[in-house]
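Subject: mismatched residue count in predicted assembly?

I count 428 residues in my input, but I want to confirm that the predicted structure covers every chain. Input:
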Amino acid sequence: MMWGLPESPMGRRTAAVRAIRSYVPERKLTNEELAREYPDWDVAKIFDKTGISVRGIVAPSECASDLGVAAAERLFADGVATRGEVDFLIFCTQSPDYFLPTTACLMQDRLGLPTTCGAVDINQGCSGFVYGLSLAKGLIESGTSENVLLVTAETYSKHIHESDRSVRTIFGDGAAATLIGAEAGTEDAIGPFVLGTNGKGAPNLIVKAGGFRQPIQIAGEAGAGGREETPSARHLYMNGAEIMGFTLQTVPKLVNALLQKAAMELQDVDYFIFHQANKFMLEQLQRKLRIPPEKFCINLQHYGNTVASTIPMALELALREDRVSRGAKVMLVGFGVGYSWGGTILRLGEIL
Amino acid sequence: MEASEFVIRLAEIAEAPPEKVSADFHLADGVWDSVAWASTVALIDEYADVYVSAQELAGCATIADVLALARRREEA
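Triage response: the counts match. Full output below for your records.
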């Protein structure tokens, strides 16, 4: 029994994922375009190394909030929820519109959510969806909220220098809107959670300039918006080897800790959706953890690595393609920039 | 994984020409960029279940050097 929430004949109050909709910007970057720019990498090689065919890329005037609003509008257009039912908005991004106000406050207005709706931004990357779920669960199961709209959106393309093929081939822009609601149940529909952080890894995946530690000057600097010949401190820097090492060291321990906390064995999990970083990294994790390939999601061909949105996008696709169904136990694992990581288990109910 | 397979797979990562696949292959003569380093970290993890840093890899000139690094870390 949860503290303060008595058992009822129907069970206790538990948070559950109700619906997911995603949005990818109209403009696309294909392997054919990339192969023209990097002549020593042909189309097949780019796909082989990344598992990605095409990435969404925002227009210069398009922000993460625009992608997030478009994803959320799909939920409302499909009638899976009304605007008035949403009483908390969590917006997970590392690309806010402004330093202030909170982007989620702007989105409350644009989405026509009630003024009685709570709204907050969380700044987290590849682990952001799992973190967002943990917060949504807390809000719902504490009785604070009934329906939490968790929106993840990112525009890493704005940070990427066109000459840096190691990141340009991988990252795509996109958003996902996930509705989490309250239901009565005898077991958790979301959880348990295992979360972790190691800030020592910060220098290995970073955009150094643009905050207050290293401001970008407004006047007379190419960094303020002009074109630079080579990557600078305002561009995304990724030490791929270190990120690979971190992932291979951390994720198996996370998976084992989560299984132990959930009192489950690996074979009890019906489907595994890890952060869709890139195909090669996912294959290494699948091999190392000895997860049967048919249970392991590798599905980033049409999106690329959309940071916090890869997990909900992959889950939406898995549901649409009937690779998971009601009652399935699905393990979600996010890991990356920070370093930050988190895992949880969903017991799927009816997801619209 | 046998050492001979390690050599072949690292040669693939570094895109060594088929006629030059050997432990003596100089990585700088192939494609030895950040993407190849990430793949090599994964290969060493698979071969010896150990983690080597990018900095350690930077000190390797040949495939044999990488193999020796993996073995040293495995024994440590």
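The longest strand of chain A covers residues 12-23. Marking this ticket as 'not a bug'.
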